[in-house]
Amino acid sequence: MLKALIEQVEFAMAVHDIRYFLNGVLFVADGKRLTLVATDGNRLALAQADLAVAVPKQAVILPRKTVHELQRLLHDGNVEIRFAATQARFSFDGTELVTKLIEGRFPDYNRVIPKGHRHVVTLGRAPFLAGLQRASILTSEKFKGVRVTVAPGALRIASSNAAHEEADEDLEADYGGDSIEIGFNITYLLDVLANTNVDRVQMELQDAHSSVLFTFPDRTGFKYVVSPMRL
Fold first, then answer.
1. Which element (helix H / strand E) includes 64?
2. pLDDT in tens, 32-67
3. Which residues does 153 contact at the CB level (< 8 Å), separation at least 6?
4. How does pLDDT run across 178-224, given as a tens digit for each residue?
5. Domains along the chain?
6. DSSP class of residue 10?
7. Which residues are CB-contacts of 195 (< 8 A; sequence separation ≥ 6)?
8. CB neighbours of 119 closer than 8 A, spacing ≥ 6?
């Protein structure tokens, strides 16, 4: 379970950000709920699971290197986690991993996650991923921008580059609301769709200027927020 939670969020960690507290994953244990959160300031991934035993609320930030080491080492079996003021210890399968923690205040992730967006789009994850992969070939090397347009029954992906080459692709989608056109860094979409094997993805939108919430109807406890990109 822990390995799966890490895999759902680790790609959203910042890399060498001067806001050092973003270069890792937030672990929050509260009662019978374990929450992992990662963000680089432009997107945020959150994954939650239930614990067998209730614990007092604790929140620590694990460094990026530790997160990747856990991802590599964890397998089936139980893991014991102990948090202290400046360190964490993970014990499993005869292995003990001790790490320093990142000091600092992690952003309030609950304020970042959109609530009450009016427009909801549901479509197949695999076709969406494949369409984005094809569109990424013709995105700008520097900006990696893609334009996504939702309209009743359809989602369109469009990209272009400095050589005036263009790609357009239409996908079937379960949607009956107003037409909305919104820009994204295509890498942020590819990351979340490629790191899961669920069948469907759901997008909750407000307008072209507000962050979009991605969830998977077949996987509870996961949320992914992406800020729009001006194209």
1. helix 64-73
2. 999 999 999 999 999 999 998 899 999 999 999 999
3. 172, 173, 174, 175, 176
4. 999 999 999 999 999 998 999 999 999 999 999 999 999 999 999 99
5. 2-112 (3.10.150.10), 119-226 (3.10.150.10)
6. G
7. 7, 8, 11
8. 150, 175, 177, 178, 180, 204, 205, 206
